[in-house]
Amino acid sequence: MDYLCFELPVLRNGTLYGTVQLDECIHSEEETIETLVDGGFASVGGNSHLFDVLHIFNESKANVCCVLNDELQWIGIITKTAAIEALGQSLTVNQGGAILLVEMASYQYSSSELARLIEGEGAQLLGLWLNNVAESGRIQASLKLNIKNAERIINSLQRHGYETIASFGDEDYKENVENRFQSLMKYIDL
Fewest C-beta atoms under 10 Å: which of 80, 106, 126, 159? Predict the structure, then answer.
């Protein structure tokens, strides 16, 4: 069994009736599954995007998302594990490269501007994730690049008013900053 599923769909004439917890089925003294069915189930249409499925999982406590056709007939299920694996198959996750965490004012955010600055330094933007920083009203953008040494990109973003608050997978840049810092300390010590 590839994906162990503890939440099972219950069908009635091919139509999704609800879901039931596996442990409730095993430990229940009830005569029928119908008495155990939870009618509130997470579902998406058959043509839904992976992001729709991830949104459903984020909003609900469900471990499975039922897939329905246009007539609300049951097609199948997607488990949280399968959705995460599908997300992991994307080029953004699988390809090596630096990841930059850049913060900016919400009015300053422009994906085309970020891509232009990155591509202007000879790199490609493989992925972009956005998060709101609630307490400050700013935006944090996680940028996945196709290169490991992101020093040029960090400097370019800084010149254009973007604050790089963290970088990952870019040991050359961190080493270079450390070397520059040590050189500065030696110079100041004179």
Answer: 159
